[in-house]
Design goal:
The protein is of the alpha+beta class. It has 29 helices and 17 strands. The strands form three sheets. A six-stranded antiparallel sheet has the order 2-3-1-9-8-10. It has a six-stranded antiparallel sheet with strand order 4-5-6-7-11-12, covered by helices on one side. Helix 11 packs across helix 20.
Length: 623
């Protein structure tokens, strides 16, 4: 795992140095650059495969006609290399997957993407054709940002690489801000800056003579299979074993990030089964019981016999990190689990360089609590109007709670965001500010600019890609196209790479994704519970209390902290004086949100945290 950056157009060697230095935390082991004419490529290396100098990047073919700077891992590179060697055209100088990409491009061109199995983001330059190719993996596990500024194309693993080039012009994109306040992240392809974009998953971009061509090379398919449940369980067993096995290949120490949930415990099970030595597992805990999962992580580790490492963090440990959020992220994202994910990554990095995680399965197999809420919504919709009003009134009388997924908070979100198109209901439940609330947040001047924005238009664009699939699979598809690549994978990538830890996600193996997407929905969600087929597979392999425990997010006690420990920071960032000087948000409206939360009248944790995260980002990049 590494950091990449570069440009084609105007730029100096100092620009290139500044760009790669901005993402050097992603690759502390080595740095390299290629600069010739108007093309600059740079690389910060985290050595995982072939630790020798032969793995130095940017890397070129023997004729110096193709140059590559690459971030990620290609798990089938040995098979790809053997295939290329059989042609008799290529002699490899290293044991890296990087070199396999170079010669695969030379042999297959754009058809190469069909062959790549892994997570990646790369920039490849063909000197004779004067053509730059930027590419991202199928699910968006590895990030790649790009921008065209005054005829110069800039790219990098993180936005901060683009910002380090003297030609990049910073301008807040108000349309993206509005989407952020709904989704809690800026969805691809937009970024928080005007004229800067994220390269979408499963996409490559060709830049030649100032012209851009973007092409998607893979599309998720939900065509249902007729496989029996027994055969499906056996196939999932095989696929998981193979996915974990190929992700255990590394020339550096490796471990598992273990939460104690079924997903990470499943990965730990297969890793330990495939390894003769005890696999290292890592977990963290909190003193606040409703947020602490450490007992389940220990249970799983003891049951599987792993070499387990655990530590407990306090509120002070987490809060010390909060001012650094804008350094870990270079555009706002309001998922508070970024903080414990960073702490876990930092803890694991003391002993390993690569870690496997259970990320991705919630989106594949309907693992979120919103799916239970969706089931209940069908019953709620059938109630007579007077009963709906009675239920809604009763729920709003419940005092605001402070626990993770408190009854009061979940119930009120269910009622308040129930109405509207059912296929968008999950995103309304997960949103910070609804369509009716967001306009009230802005000053009149800002409101006038973004009043015509519709945050959910993006969801309709995604749904247009899959017109023939079932309603339930449309919901899953939206999670896989939005929440997974824009929140979950961003959080994991930035938190882990800030500590130079590579994280691999076996559930997001291409074959597993395609297989699970082909299964009947009832194999994924059944009886008010997601991950049905995985639970059937693991029922004899993990303790029942791991398999049957309810979903619990990797959260922090924000509701309480915002009333007490975080209140000074909240007041500092969201004071009327600061807001009026900034000119974006209506100070009176935000003062009301704070008062409601402090008094316990309403739980405004999501809204306030979303605003705080934006303010931290704004102060870092615009002051």
């Amino acid at each position: 795992m590494c950091g990449i950056a570069g440009f084609i157009g105007k730029g100096t060697e100092q620009d290139l140095d500044n760009m790669i230095r901005a993402v050097s935390h992603r690759g502390p082991d080595d740095q390299g650059k290629f600069l010739k004419g108007d093309i600059g490529l740079a690389h910060a290396r985290l050595s995982i495969i072939d630790l020798s100098p032969a793995g130095h990047q940017p890397m070129a073919d023997k004729d110096k006609k193709i140059w590559l700077t690459f971030n990620g891992e290609i798990y089938n590179f040995k098979e790809l290399r053997a295939e290329l060697e059989k042609t008799g055209k290529y002699r490899f100088q290293s044991q890296t997957d990087t070199e396999a990409i170079i010669y695969a491009w030379k042999e297959y061109g754009e058809k190469m993407f069909e062959k790549l199995d892994g997570m990646f983001a790369f920039a490849l330059y063909e000197t004779e054709k004067e053509t730059l190719i930027l590419a991202s993996d199928r699910l968006g596990k590895k990030p790649l940002y790009w921008s065209i500024q005054n005829g110069t194309l800039l790219f990098g693993s993180e936005l901060k690489a683009l910002l380090a080039h003297q030609g990049f012009h910073k301008e807040l994109d108000l349309a993206s801000l509005d989407k952020y306040l709904f989704y809690e992240y800026v969805p691809a392809p937009q970024t928080i800056f005007k004229n800067a974009q994220k390269l979408e998953p499963a996409t490559y971009l060709v830049y030649k003579n100032g012209q851009i061509k973007k092409q998607r090379y893979w599309k998720m398919d939900f065509n249902p299979s007729s496989v029996s449940e027994t055969k499906a369980i056996a196939e999932l067993d095989t696929l998981l074993s193979e996915a974990v096995k190929k992700r255990l290949v590394a020339d550096v120490p490796l471990g598992i990030l273990l939460s104690g949930g079924i997903d990470s415990s499943t990965i730990a099970y297969y890793a330990q089964k495939l390894t003769s030595d005890k696999i290292k597992t890592f977990s963290i805990g909190f003193r606040e019981k409703s947020f602490d999962e450490s007992s389940y992580a220990k249970l799983a580790a003891d049951f599987l016999g792993t070499d387990h490492y655990h530590t407990v963090f306090t509120a002070e440990n987490v809060m010390e990190l909060i001012p650094s959020i804008s350094e870990i992220l270079d555009e706002p994202m309001a998922d508070p689990s970024l903080l414990p994910t960073y702490l876990l990554s930092k803890f694991a990095r003391h002993r390993v360089t690569v870690a496997l995680s259970g990320d991705g399965n919630d989106e594949l197999m309907a693992g979120y609590n919103t799916f239970q809420a969706h089931s209940l919504a069908g019953l709620y919709a059938k109630l007579p109007l007077f009963l709906k009003k009675t239920v809604a009134g009763a729920l709003r009388l419940i005092p605001a709670g402070e626990k993770n997924f408190s009854l009061e908070y979940s119930a009120k979100k269910f009622i308040d965001d129930f109405e509207g198109r059912p296929e968008l209901r999950h995103h309304r439940w997960m949103a910070s500010f609804s369509d009716s609330e967001r306009p009230l947040l802005y000053t009149p001047k800002i409101r006038e600019v973004i009043n015509k924005e519709v945050a959910t238009d993006l969801l309709d664009e995604h749904l247009a890609d899959v017109p023939g699939i079932s309603f339930e699979n449309k919901i899953l598809y939206l999670y896989l196209k939005t929440y997974l690549p824009n929140d979950i994978l961003v959080k994991t990538d930035r938190a882990s790479m800030k500590t130079a830890l590579e994280v691999r996600c076996p559930f997001l193996d291409r074959r597993i994704v395609e297989f699970i997407n082909s299964l009947p929905y009832g194999y994924k969600y059944r009886g008010l519970s997601g991950k049905y087929i995985l639970k059937q597979l693991m029922k004899d392999k993990l303790p029942p209390s791991i398999i049957n425990r309810p979903k619990k997010g990797f959260g922090i006690p924000l509701a309480r902290w915002l009333k007490y420990e975080l209140r000074p920071l909240c007041e500092e960032l969201l004071s009327p004086v600061v807001l009026r000087k900034q000119g974006i948000f209506d100070a009176d409206m935000i003062e009301r949100l704070k008062t409601e939360h402090y008094s316990g009248k309403k739980d405004r944790r999501k809204e306030l945290w979303t605003l705080i995260t934006f303010q931290l980002w704004f102060n870092r990049w615009f002051k």
